[in-house]
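Why should sequence recovery work at all? Because a backbone constrains its sequence more than one might expect. Tight turns favour small or flexible residues, buried strands favour hydrophobic ones, and helices have their own preferences. The token representation captures these environments compactly. In the example below, the structure is given first.
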């Protein structure tokens, strides 16, 4: 009996790790006959595992998705990885996922062996998430799943969209990919009414089914969609654009500049380029100064003049502050 149970676990592990197995291949891996494989597959089905079988010489066995979730077979590292993922899921900006993650983590910890429970417990007890900036609007997990399914199935999406200025519009798009950045979710899609690619914040999307029809996916706007979205939300969305050379290695700059603040590009061992945007040149001056790096303006020329104006204003302020008898002097 123990031998049979161990073999079932081994069979389940093989099915989970591979898209499809032929009967002879499974028999060879398990060291049993094809007939025994068929019996073991029937036992897995009785336990609730949806094992699909396709007949013929090119057929085989495949673990499908079932109506009920059966127990999962995880090795030690996989179990810890799942626990860590559940622990950090609350910071991903998906509505209700925090509470759901806690419940799932509690169930997982109940079945973990003591050696793994100690590892997971240490991670939970002695780690504190550091969330930068304001908390994003939560994304409805149902909407997120719906968009992912439409991307997968190549179906047109109809939705109401609330712009950053509060205006509402109706859109019909060909959804392509979802991108997560800084705890925000974005949808990259081809806007049929505007005949161009657009990026939409998912928390501002309200699907309006029915969706469809199906479409043939277009060539994406960029190979690196994460960089494409980063440029869109940090640069293209603003009226004023700038390129500055930061006198800092790329890795050091990337540790302090988020993808939503600008797009970094390697230039040399001691410098990198930053492409960014702002509402005006005056705001751009403050934005670049707040980065905390020495820099050189490459474009536009107007930014250099705006920096001079800011310098003169600051110089006058310092002169007045340091004048003898002026309140706040010699601070």
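From this structural description, the recovered sequence reads:
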């Amino acid at each position: 009996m123990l031998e049979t149970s161990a073999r079932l676990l081994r069979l389940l592990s093989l099915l989970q790790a591979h898209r499809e197995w032929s009967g002879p291949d499974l028999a060879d891996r398990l060291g049993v006959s094809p007939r025994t494989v068929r019996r073991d597959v029937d036992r897995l089905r009785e336990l609730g595992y949806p094992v699909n079988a396709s007949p013929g010489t090119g057929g085989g066995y495949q673990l499908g998705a079932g109506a009920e979730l059966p127990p999962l077979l995880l090795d030690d590292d996989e179990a810890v990885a799942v626990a860590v993922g559940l622990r950090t899921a609350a910071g991903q900006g998906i509505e209700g996922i925090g509470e759901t993650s806690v419940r799932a983590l509690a169930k997982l910890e109940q079945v973990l062996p003591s050696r793994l429970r100690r590892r997971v417990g240490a991670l939970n007890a002695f780690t504190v998430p550091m969330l930068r900036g304001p908390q994003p609007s939560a994304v409805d997990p149902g909407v997120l799943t719906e968009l992912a399914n439409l991307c997968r199935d190549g179906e047109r999406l109809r939705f109401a969209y609330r712009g950053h200025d509060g205006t509402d519009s109706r859109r019909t798009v060909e959804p392509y990919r979802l991108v997560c950045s800084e705890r925000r979710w974005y949808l990259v899609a081809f806007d049929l009414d505007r005949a161009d690619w657009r990026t939409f914040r998912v928390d501002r999307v309200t699907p309006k089914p029915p969706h469809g029809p199906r479409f043939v996916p277009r060539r994406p706007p960029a190979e690196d969609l994460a960089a494409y979205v980063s440029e869109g939300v940090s640069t293209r969305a603003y009226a004023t654009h700038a390129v500055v050379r930061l006198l800092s290695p790329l890795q050091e700059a990337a540790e302090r500049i988020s993808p939503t603040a600008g797009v970094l590009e390697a230039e040399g061992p001691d410098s990198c380029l930053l492409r960014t945007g702002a509402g005006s040149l005056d705001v751009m001056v403050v934005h670049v100064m707040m980065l905390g790096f020495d820099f050189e303006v490459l474009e536009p020329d107007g930014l250099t003049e705006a920096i001079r104006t800011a310098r003169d204003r600051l110089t006058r302020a310092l002169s007045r502050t340091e004048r003898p008898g002026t309140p706040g002097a010699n601070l």
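A few observations help interpret the result. The mean pLDDT is 83.
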